[in-house]
Amino acid sequence: MSTEHHRYLAHEFPKLKHRIHELKQISNTFRALYEEYESVDNEIVRIEQEIETPSDEYTKSLKQRRVQLKDQLYDILTDHIHPEVETVEYVVRNKFRLPVDHGEVSRDWAERGYSCDVFIDTPGQAWRNFVHDTNELVTVMEGRLDVTLHELRYQLEPGDELFIPRGAVHSVFNVYEGETRWLYGYD
Q1: Among 119, 116, 130, which Cα is nearest to 176's?
Q2: Cα dist. 93→1, 17, 75, 79, 139 in Å?
Q3: Strands of 112-176, DSSP E
Q4: What is the spatial distance between Cα 187 and Cα 174, in angstroms, rounded to a whole number?
Q5: C-alpha dist (Å) from residue 161 to 36, 86, 164
Q6: Cβ neighbours for 83, distance < 8 A, ≥ 6 positions apart
Q7: CA 102-95-80 angle, 5° bins
Q8: What DSSP character marks residue 144?
Q9: Which is nearest to 187 in space by CA: 73, 84, 110, 124?
Q10: Cα separation of 128 and 39, whole Å?
Q11: CA distances from 171 to 10, 101, 130, 138, 145 (A)
């Protein structure tokens, strides 16, 4: 019986095979995500072959993580995001010039297929454990936000942009002493 299965990215995205190889060579971020994807996928295959028999809940969470990783890798492969942003979780510092102009951000995001709306949060406002079926972008106009994403915490200043992949659990906190005005959009 062959131990090879057909979920490797080159089989999933045959037209991107050369891009996969290239990014594995030049991008630490892509390589780390790719290795995690393969590890998770291999564990799922062992479960499907009944080599391992974990709980249904664990198996479901593992499959959800595989989808999240595959989405992140696909976004990098198709240039929806640059493979070497500041962190694995897609923060781009000073993406927009100050003062941040709602119209400028809206036009930029529309070109990338995203909506653009405003939130105004009072001091201490917290949005906890949100998950969306779409990708999301966040940019602070005035104030400061802490965003927790994939167990990492980011402090966003005016002009910073954060990409939140679909399916990612995230929380947003206004840590500014006054109101924080921020933009969010979905694809």
Answers
A1: 119
A2: 50, 30, 19, 18, 10
A3: 117-121, 126-130, 136-142, 145-149, 152-156, 161-164, 170-174
A4: 24
A5: 25, 11, 10
A6: 23, 26, 27, 29, 30, 76
A7: 100
A8: -
A9: 110
A10: 29
A11: 33, 24, 6, 12, 10
Each residue's pLDDT tens digit, 32-67: 888 888 999 999 999 999 998 889 899 998 888 888
- Please write the tens of the pLDDT for every residue from 116-167: 999 999 989 999 888 888 889 999 999 999 998 876 788 899 999 999 888 7
Q: Which residues touch 103 (CB under 8 Å, ≥6 apart)?
A: none
The domain made up of 91-186 is a member of CATH 2.30.130.10: no
Give CA–CA dist 149/153, Å, rounded. 6
Q: How far apart are CA 11 and CA 162, in angstroms?
A: 30
Q: Where are the domains of the chain?
A: 9-77, 91-186
- DSSP letters for 21-59: HHHHHH-HHHHHHHHHHHHHHHHHHHHHTTSS---HHHH
The whole-angstrom separation of Cα 162 and Cα 137 is: 6
Q: Which of 40, 9, 30 is nearest to 90 (CA)?
A: 30
Model-level pTM greater than 0.85? no
Contact 76, 33 (CB under 8 A): yes
